[in-house]
Amino acid sequence: LRRGMNVLDFPCGSGYGSLIITPDGGYYHGMDVDEITVKYCNNMYGNSTRGFSVNDLTYPKLMASQYDLIACIEGIEHIDEQFQGPLIHSFYDALKPNGTLIVSSPERTNNLNKFHKHELTMKEFTFILTSYFEDVQVLTHKSTLHNGTLSNCFYGVCRK
Predict the structure, then answer these.
(1) Range 129-155 average pLDDT
(2) CA distance 149 to 132
(3) Which 3 state secondary structure label does DSSP give 154?
(4) The model's pTM
(5) What is the C-alpha to C-alpha distance for residues 30 and 42, in angstroms, rounded to an integer?
(6) Cis geometry, peptide bond prior to residue 11 (ω within 30 degrees of 0)
(7) Which residues is 70 bridged to in the sheet?
(8) Where are the alpha helices (DSSP H) in 6-137?
(9) What is the pLDDT of residues 101-122, one digit of tens each?
(10) Helix, strand or coil for residue 108?
(11) Helices and strands, number each (H, E), in the chain
(12) Do the strands 50-54 and 27-32 form a parallel or antiparallel pair, or are they unpaired?
Protein backbone atom coordinates (compact mmCIF):
# COMPACT_ATOMS: atom_id res chain seq x y z
CA LEU A 1 0.00 0.00 0.00
CA ARG A 2 0.98 3.55 -0.56
CA ARG A 3 0.44 6.52 1.71
CA GLY A 4 -2.91 8.17 1.25
CA MET A 5 -4.71 5.09 -0.06
CA ASN A 6 -8.25 4.52 1.16
CA VAL A 7 -8.74 0.86 2.18
CA LEU A 8 -11.83 -1.16 3.06
CA ASP A 9 -11.48 -4.43 4.99
CA PHE A 10 -14.86 -6.19 4.93
CA PRO A 11 -15.40 -8.34 6.96
CA CYS A 12 -12.78 -7.05 9.36
CA GLY A 13 -13.35 -9.51 12.21
CA SER A 14 -11.50 -8.47 15.36
CA GLY A 15 -9.75 -5.62 13.57
CA TYR A 16 -6.12 -6.69 13.99
CA GLY A 17 -5.74 -6.58 10.19
CA SER A 18 -5.88 -2.79 10.40
CA LEU A 19 -2.34 -2.82 11.79
CA ILE A 20 -1.14 -5.09 8.97
CA ILE A 21 -2.93 -3.44 6.07
CA THR A 22 -2.03 0.19 6.81
CA PRO A 23 1.22 0.20 8.81
CA ASP A 24 2.77 3.14 6.91
CA GLY A 25 -0.16 5.41 6.38
CA GLY A 26 -3.37 5.39 4.45
CA TYR A 27 -6.94 5.39 5.62
CA TYR A 28 -8.44 2.16 6.87
CA HIS A 29 -12.14 1.39 7.21
CA GLY A 30 -13.12 -1.96 8.68
CA MET A 31 -16.68 -3.26 8.47
CA ASP A 32 -18.32 -6.22 10.12
CA VAL A 33 -21.85 -7.39 10.83
CA ASP A 34 -21.48 -7.72 14.62
CA GLU A 35 -22.00 -4.49 16.60
CA ILE A 36 -20.08 -5.74 19.67
CA THR A 37 -17.10 -6.66 17.48
CA VAL A 38 -17.15 -3.27 15.77
CA LYS A 39 -17.22 -1.51 19.15
CA TYR A 40 -14.23 -3.59 20.27
CA CYS A 41 -12.36 -2.73 17.05
CA ASN A 42 -12.94 0.99 17.50
CA ASN A 43 -11.78 0.82 21.12
CA MET A 44 -8.65 -1.22 20.30
CA TYR A 45 -7.56 0.13 16.91
CA GLY A 46 -9.63 3.17 16.03
CA ASN A 47 -7.85 6.49 15.53
CA SER A 48 -7.82 9.39 13.07
CA THR A 49 -6.87 7.10 10.14
CA ARG A 50 -8.57 3.84 11.21
CA GLY A 51 -12.27 3.42 11.82
CA PHE A 52 -14.83 0.63 12.00
CA SER A 53 -18.55 0.44 11.31
CA VAL A 54 -21.37 -2.09 11.13
CA ASN A 55 -22.32 -3.39 7.70
CA ASP A 56 -23.65 -6.65 6.26
CA LEU A 57 -22.07 -8.55 3.35
CA THR A 58 -25.56 -9.69 2.34
CA TYR A 59 -26.82 -6.15 1.73
CA PRO A 60 -23.70 -3.96 1.78
CA LYS A 61 -24.14 -0.22 1.90
CA LEU A 62 -21.05 1.20 0.21
CA MET A 63 -20.39 4.56 -1.41
CA ALA A 64 -19.38 4.55 -5.09
CA SER A 65 -15.75 5.16 -6.07
CA GLN A 66 -14.62 5.40 -2.45
CA TYR A 67 -11.73 2.91 -2.09
CA ASP A 68 -8.34 2.28 -3.67
CA LEU A 69 -8.24 -1.23 -2.21
CA ILE A 70 -10.90 -3.56 -0.85
CA ALA A 71 -9.99 -6.73 1.04
CA CYS A 72 -12.65 -9.40 1.55
CA ILE A 73 -10.65 -12.17 3.18
CA GLU A 74 -12.60 -15.28 4.12
CA GLY A 75 -15.97 -13.55 3.96
CA ILE A 76 -17.83 -14.43 0.77
CA GLU A 77 -18.46 -18.04 1.86
CA HIS A 78 -20.37 -16.76 4.90
CA ILE A 79 -23.29 -15.49 2.81
CA ASP A 80 -25.84 -17.37 0.71
CA GLU A 81 -25.04 -18.01 -2.94
CA GLN A 82 -27.60 -15.52 -4.31
CA PHE A 83 -25.82 -12.66 -2.49
CA GLN A 84 -22.26 -13.47 -3.58
CA GLY A 85 -22.43 -11.98 -7.08
CA PRO A 86 -24.19 -8.79 -5.92
CA LEU A 87 -21.51 -8.41 -3.21
CA ILE A 88 -18.73 -8.50 -5.81
CA HIS A 89 -20.71 -6.00 -7.89
CA SER A 90 -20.99 -3.70 -4.83
CA PHE A 91 -17.23 -3.94 -4.34
CA TYR A 92 -16.66 -3.08 -8.01
CA ASP A 93 -18.83 0.02 -7.67
CA ALA A 94 -17.12 1.05 -4.42
CA LEU A 95 -13.65 0.96 -5.99
CA LYS A 96 -12.07 4.05 -7.48
CA PRO A 97 -10.87 3.77 -11.09
CA ASN A 98 -7.76 1.53 -11.12
CA GLY A 99 -8.72 0.20 -7.67
CA THR A 100 -8.04 -3.38 -6.57
CA LEU A 101 -10.23 -5.99 -4.89
CA ILE A 102 -8.57 -8.87 -3.07
CA VAL A 103 -11.06 -11.58 -2.18
CA SER A 104 -10.46 -15.05 -0.80
CA SER A 105 -12.54 -18.14 -0.22
CA PRO A 106 -11.89 -21.74 0.71
CA GLU A 107 -12.57 -24.30 -1.98
CA ARG A 108 -15.81 -26.24 -1.61
CA THR A 109 -15.25 -29.60 0.05
CA ASN A 110 -17.36 -32.41 1.41
CA ASN A 111 -16.48 -31.20 4.92
CA LEU A 112 -18.50 -27.99 4.81
CA ASN A 113 -17.74 -25.66 7.69
CA LYS A 114 -20.99 -25.17 9.62
CA PHE A 115 -20.44 -21.38 9.56
CA HIS A 116 -20.12 -21.30 5.76
CA LYS A 117 -23.35 -20.81 3.84
CA HIS A 118 -21.93 -21.41 0.33
CA GLU A 119 -18.38 -22.48 -0.43
CA LEU A 120 -17.28 -22.11 -4.04
CA THR A 121 -15.56 -24.27 -6.62
CA MET A 122 -12.72 -22.74 -8.63
CA LYS A 123 -15.09 -22.41 -11.59
CA GLU A 124 -17.75 -20.59 -9.52
CA PHE A 125 -15.19 -18.31 -7.85
CA THR A 126 -13.64 -17.34 -11.18
CA PHE A 127 -17.05 -16.84 -12.80
CA ILE A 128 -18.27 -14.45 -10.11
CA LEU A 129 -15.12 -12.34 -10.30
CA THR A 130 -14.95 -12.22 -14.10
CA SER A 131 -18.63 -11.29 -14.26
CA TYR A 132 -17.68 -7.83 -12.92
CA PHE A 133 -13.93 -7.42 -13.48
CA GLU A 134 -11.97 -7.81 -16.71
CA ASP A 135 -8.55 -8.00 -15.04
CA VAL A 136 -8.65 -10.99 -12.67
CA GLN A 137 -5.87 -13.20 -11.37
CA VAL A 138 -6.75 -16.23 -9.26
CA LEU A 139 -4.14 -17.78 -7.01
CA THR A 140 -4.46 -20.85 -4.82
CA HIS A 141 -2.96 -21.67 -1.47
CA LYS A 142 -3.02 -25.02 0.31
CA SER A 143 -3.36 -24.99 4.08
CA THR A 144 -4.26 -27.33 6.89
CA LEU A 145 -7.44 -26.31 8.67
CA HIS A 146 -7.92 -26.37 12.44
CA ASN A 147 -9.58 -29.80 12.11
CA GLY A 148 -6.56 -31.27 10.28
CA THR A 149 -8.17 -31.20 6.83
CA LEU A 150 -5.98 -30.12 3.91
CA SER A 151 -7.76 -27.33 2.05
CA ASN A 152 -7.31 -25.11 -0.98
CA CYS A 153 -8.00 -21.43 -0.62
CA PHE A 154 -8.62 -19.17 -3.62
CA TYR A 155 -7.39 -15.60 -3.79
CA GLY A 156 -8.77 -13.32 -6.46
CA VAL A 157 -6.89 -10.15 -7.31
CA CYS A 158 -9.24 -8.01 -9.38
CA ARG A 159 -8.33 -4.66 -10.90
CA LYS A 160 -10.93 -2.15 -11.99
Answers:
(1) 87
(2) 32
(3) strand
(4) 0.91
(5) 9
(6) yes
(7) 8, 101
(8) 17-21, 35-45, 81-94, 122-130
(9) 999 998 887 666 777 788 888 9
(10) coil
(11) 4, 7
(12) parallel
